[in-house]
Write the structure tokens for this entry.
Amino acid sequence: MPTLAMPRPVIDLREVSLCYRLAKQKIPSFKEYALHWMRGALTYEQLWALREVNLRVDRGESLGIVGRNGAGKSTLLKVISSVLPPTRGKALVHGRVAPMLELGTGFDFELTGQENIFLNALLLGHPKREIEQRFDRIVDFSGLGDFIRTPIRNYSSGMLSRLAFSVLTAWTPDILVLDESLAVGDVHFVKKCEERIGELQAHGTTLLLVSHMAEAVRVHCRRCIWLESGCLRADGRPDEVLDIYEESSAVAVEADPGEATISA
Amino acid sequence: MKRLYEHSDLVWYLVLRDLRVRYRRSTIGLVWTLLQPLIMMLVLYVVFSNVFRFQLYRYPVYALAGILFWNFFQQSIVASMNSLRGNAAILQKLPVPKAVFPVATVISGVVNLCLALVPLLAILVATGQPLQPALLFLPVSILLAALFTLGAGLLLSPLAVFFSDVVELVGVVMMLLMYLTPIFYPMAIVPEQYRWMVRYNPIRSVLEVFRDPIYYGKIPPLPHVAVTVVISLVALAIGALAFRRNSDRIPFYI
């Protein structure tokens, strides 16, 4: 399957823009929609969450994504996981994206850990047969022992993230998306996770790490991008990008937290 | 369609989960599925034979078959509408084919309907009716009802994401439709000038294809079955097309 000629990027975003169209009037109901529509008074506010983002990521790269809240990080990830189609531009993603979900997403709290392994892996798109094959390994890696047979509503957040990570990494995804939710595990498990991530990378998995903590990006990534108001502001080595990112945040906070515009 | 097929394991698991949540956690779930239509039937029987004073041959069977059908139809549609909103977090993060949720909902509705048929058949036997071979036609009837219901569910579930009042709106429309469908009254009591409204109600066709084998012990007339097949397929096609058109917009609004 992998061709040696001309490495094809796993992620290739070309001039990707994404617009959330927000109705100016609050229209939570069909009744109001119909009324506004009849009056011809439907106007929309456009909120561009991504603006002409160009990004090429190759197989096996590790990319950190930094930026303030609302800078477009999650939207970028949603475009990469093909949840949201770009409004303009082209998003080419080759291979399977495995996102680490927020605690509890893709789980059913009434079901046991065992049942949730199936539910979660099926939601991630794996067939039942493959889950059965990997089931023991998932349970083993999670280290949850007998808790695996109890409903997960009794789990702590650390236990939930163990289960989620174990399911997620039982397969070798082409693109692994991680965020801070891993940090809730204990030291021992975090170390185990890091080893597993290393193994996956050795198999060619591309790592995307979204983090507010610069430290994590510095340690795990060899490339970093900085998003600001939907624009790609910087792309390069983590040291360089993080330096200007942190500098700009400091300046912005000092100057005016309400209206922070940074001249690059 | 292809992606839905690839995720068939997921659909089955969602169905199982639905049933598990309904039946494993409490025996009340099962008792309720079986008992609720029976209670409803008793109420109708008392009301119609004493208040409205009309007599219909074996009315309990007539009414119960109608109630089971309507429960399936209405509950599946409401549950379909809630299924997308209930899985909002997943739909925002994972590229699952969104139709798996309404599809799984309707399938578990079919399982509930089949369970609820058991007491109905018991009543048939208890009232001295031998079980007719026509009952073997029921799987076809149920399949048609399921396709029709799925069509409605696929049409309405994205709307419920876009507008929060659609669920209530649909509730009102369903109430109206229920009275326009001969569920607990016979066609004969509808005044002549209004009868067309009931006659051209497509849900009536689907209902009768389901009820005829139970109530009359006969396979419904072939032209009637053919019309119902067309109605169900058209409903499904409209629903599937509407769902596909709206599908991409769902994560933006959920």
